[in-house]
Design a protein that fits this description.
alpha/beta, five-stranded parallel β-sheet, 362 residues, 4 domains, OB fold (Dihydrolipoamide Acetyltransferase, E2P), single chain, Rossmann fold, five-stranded mixed β-barrel
Length: 362
């Protein structure tokens, strides 16, 4: 950028405005850098387009003014307080109208793992109180999903492992793949938006949120409140397959199912075709044997019934030494039904007798 000046004798003279513009232009050539310091004088207002604070070096008190677009700062979901140590990534700039030098921040990271863990633990308690992690709200996964959505990053490993495992288990499976940021300050909102979009895709019955292993910092977006709430609010089941077995980001707790790896997620969302075919073959074999088995069961039931009938028949009673006396009016059951001199027939187990009543006894 050419800066205009005036010649006054042997001097080049610049106006304040020209000088500031020239310095501001020169500063744009400097690279982006990380700066560490303590936050002081933090200022944010909803009507402002930027947030402002000062970075102070605790060793000698040196100060550096910092500004950042409010939308970008709000997206980070940081709770900056005075005295907190942070890393700020940005570019030096000069606000030409006022001649104010400052660092234009592009992103901010709270320094210290303890502070981050404490923030995640606070969010975990809050969301648990709201019921987002309750087992009662978790839905079963579809047995035969019409379409599976995979949300992952650009890394080849997670996508390759999941797709390979799914196609090996169930070749007919249909997979819709969406890729977006999976680490860094832009990851959480990008993942949340992509998840909402995938859930609205036709015939998608389940979404798998997958990412390979990484450092604690790499996995932070998967404990971001925006993504965790998006997982809990999804209209279809969500499987979280993030990191390794020992990693438990908050999206794992909100998801309907959790898998330790993308390969394990494949085992959850599709059945094994080989096992299904084996079960079908066993079922067909049982059906082939069913008619014969039914006849055998019916024959056994009839034989049992016939045995009971034989046991209850009067022939069986006669064989035990009993006899049946009859008159022309039927079986004789009481002495009051006959009189002395009446003729009766007596049936035995073998043969019968003709007899006449000589005496009756009560």
């Amino acid at each position: 950028m050419k800066v205009e000046h005036e010649l006054q004798g042997d001097r080049k003279v610049y106006t304040v405005s020209a000088f500031n513009r020239g310095v501001a232009s020169w500063l744009t050539r400097l690279p982006t850098i990380w700066v560490e310091g303590e936050v002081t004088e933090f200022r944010r207002q909803d009507r402002w387009q930027s947030v402002f604070f000062t970075l102070k070096d605790p060793r000698d008190g040196s100060c550096l003014p910092v500004s950042m677009p409010r939308s970008g700062f709000d997206a980070l979901r940081l709770e900056l307080v005075d005295g907190q140590t942070v890393h700020v990534f940005g570019r030096p700039e000069l606000f030409a109208a006022r001649g104010e030098f400052r660092l234009r921040a592009l992103t901010i990271e709270a320094l210290g793992l303890g502070a981050v863990l404490a923030g995640i633990e606070r969010l975990k308690r809050q969301l648990a109180t709201e019921g987002l992690f309750s087992t009662a709200r978790k839905r079963p996964l579809p047995v035969f999903p019409r379409r599976i959505a995979l949300l992952t990053g650009n890394e080849a490993a997670a996508k390759r492992d999941f797709v390979t495992a799914v196609t090996a288990r169930f070749p007919a499976a249909r997979i819709l793949i969406a890729q977006t940021y999976v680490q860094g300050p832009r990851a959480a909102p990008a993942l949340a938006t992509a998840l909402q979009d995938l859930a609205r895709e036709p015939e998608v019955d389940v979404v798998v949120l997958a990412r390979g292993g990484g450092s604690f910092e790499d996995l932070l977006p998967f404990s971001d409140e925006r993504l965790v709430r998006a997982v809990a609010a999804a209209p279809i089941p969500v499987v979280s397959a993030v990191g390794h077995e020992q990693d438990t980001p908050l999206c794992d707790l909100a998801a309907d199912a959790r898998a330790s790896t993308p390969t394990a997620a494949a085992r959850l969302v599709v059945p094994d075709e080989g096992e299904l075919r084996e079960r079908l073959r066993a079922l067909v074999s049982r059906l082939d044997r069913a008619p014969l088995s039914l006849v055998e069961r019916k024959r056994a039931a009839l034989e049992s019934l016939a045995g009971r009938l034989r046991t209850l028949s009067h022939q069986a009673t006669l064989k035990r030494g009993y006899a049946i006396a009859r008159t022309d009016r039927g079986i004789l059951r009481s002495t009051e039904s006959v009189a002395t001199g009446d003729r009766i027939d007596v049936e035995l187990a073998e043969g019968s007798l003709a007899a006449r009543v000589e005496e009756t006894r009560p």
